[in-house]
Known about the structure:
The chain is of the alpha/beta class. The chain has two domains: 10-246 and 447-466, Aldehyde Dehydrogenase, Chain A, domain 1, CATH 3.40.605; 250-429, Aldehyde Dehydrogenase, Chain A, domain 2 (3-Layer(aba) Sandwich), CATH 3.40.309.10. It has 15 helices and 24 strands. It has a seven-stranded mixed sheet, sandwiched between helices. The chain has a six-stranded mixed sheet with strand order 9-8-7-10-11-23, with helices on both faces. Helix 3 (82-93) packs across helix 4, helix 3 (82-93) runs antiparallel to helix 6 (179-188) and helix 4 packs parallel to helix 5 (151-164). The radius of gyration is 24 Å and the shape is globular. The chain starts with 9 loop residues before the first strand and ends in a 10-residue tail after the last strand. The relative contact order is 0.13. It binds nicotinamide-adenine-dinucleotide. Nicotinamide-adenine-dinucleotide binds at residues 145-149, 154, 172, 174-175, 204, 207-208, 211, 222-224, 227, 230-231, 245-248, 279, 375, 377, 403, 441, 443, 448.
Amino acid sequence: MDLPRLSFGNVIDGKLQPSAITVTATDPRTQEPLWPIPAASERDLNLAVTAAGTAFQKWSKVSIQERQKAVHGLVKVLEDNREMVGHIVSRETGKSHFMGDLEVEHSLGFLRFNASQDLPDEVVFEDDTVQISTTYVPLGVVGAICPWNFPLILATAKIAAALVTGNCIIVKPSPFTPYSIMKFAELATDILPPGVFQVLNGSNEIGASMTCHPNIQKISFTGSTKTGKIIMKSCAGTLKRITLELGGNDASIVLPDVDVDSVATEVAAGCFFNSGQMCVATKRVYVHERIYDPFLRKFLEAVRALPFTQDPGVPTVLGPVQNKLQYGIVQNIIQDCKQNNYKFALGGSDIQSGQFIAPCVVDNPPDDSLVVQEEQFGPIIPLLKWSSEDELLRRANNTKSGLGACVWAKDLREAKRIGSQIHAGSVWLNSFEKPHPYGYLAGHKESGVGGEWGKQGLLSYCDAQTFHAYKGSKIIKSRH
Ligand code: NAD
């Protein structure tokens, strides 16, 4: 596949900066190198932090209306370049063009949402003598460390929230998918003052340096739980604010009174969207034993109907596993299922090429199997039978993760009653997991610390300042 002629640079202090070292990421479809890009050095990081610190002095004092206008400017620039950016997303992630375009569309949704937000002062108490109010003040320089599965959406959501609240932001994308966000930052130099939004293509080590940098005030991290724990430890040294959006093992729970045909099709979409490489993808499906067999039949039919092809022009939610590391994790889970003779209702043989793995469905494996216990983050899903509510809740909650869940029932109130007993930050009722800019995303248990998105997410980019304003001139006089 021809590589369109494009160039990429780190964006530091409003300019594209080259670097002594150039690297390339790999096309997940072909394993061929993509575009050369500079690798950021420690010096680049220091230059970016200094530029952000300087920019913050002015940006934090710009009115909220002006900052909203600037984020609207980012919307316009992305709309004007949506085709190019969508293509870049598709090339770096291995997604179909349809999914690349969808990622741009959802990124625009996050930019638009934040451009419409503000955080007015709140009066929390008032009487004749005193008014107590809370003001939300920006933190300073935010370091955003991002993963590879939705490189544009997850970064733009952080950028938009940070900027509208008056912070400056430095984004470090995953080394597997640096391109779309680097291009977006380059396009944004026409809109934003230098230093307000910068991007550094960097290794894990540059990420680590950000977490202990004395002049970065907050780290917003999206990635694995394992890295999240390392980051939390490192941020403690400078007592940075942190938001950790981490891994999940979402349960999708199907009650016996649902319409099997439509629900099985929807659940299949929630399992295999982006080939399962989504933080809130369904990773375990619990189906009541009374409908298990017909559900499984319809589920398999729905999965078989998803186009599985190497042609990125075919609109499909399936694609390759994005990188070799993740491919190894998914293969390990498949091998474990084979070695333990778990029943593959679909896949599991060698229908694959390169990093493409055909969807696998494992029929009722034991609860302690790897495919149930681990976050697979790929195209393999266990379907599990349940019979009583107590047993269901115990099994669904028997995980250190607490990111999301789904409950499907004829009666929405019944779905909510079950959903409220699941230990997870986001629960979808009669839908598969569909993240939304208005919905606060905050993992429970080991799926995160703090949260982002929605109105509440803006608070994670601010410190609260409380004013105790005493009325009149009752200044206490000194006795002497
Ligand atoms: P990862 O943790 O391997 O890497 C994420 C980012 O952290 C990358 O930019 C990487 O370079 C950087 N990094 C790695 N080591 C670091 C260190 N010691 N210090 C600082 N930065 C470091 O995760 P990944 O494989 O890119 O992403 C997949 C994971 O992300 C899955 O577990 C998935 O569930 C999770 N995820 C969570 C959400 C959410 O919102 N909760 C969203 C998407 C993905």
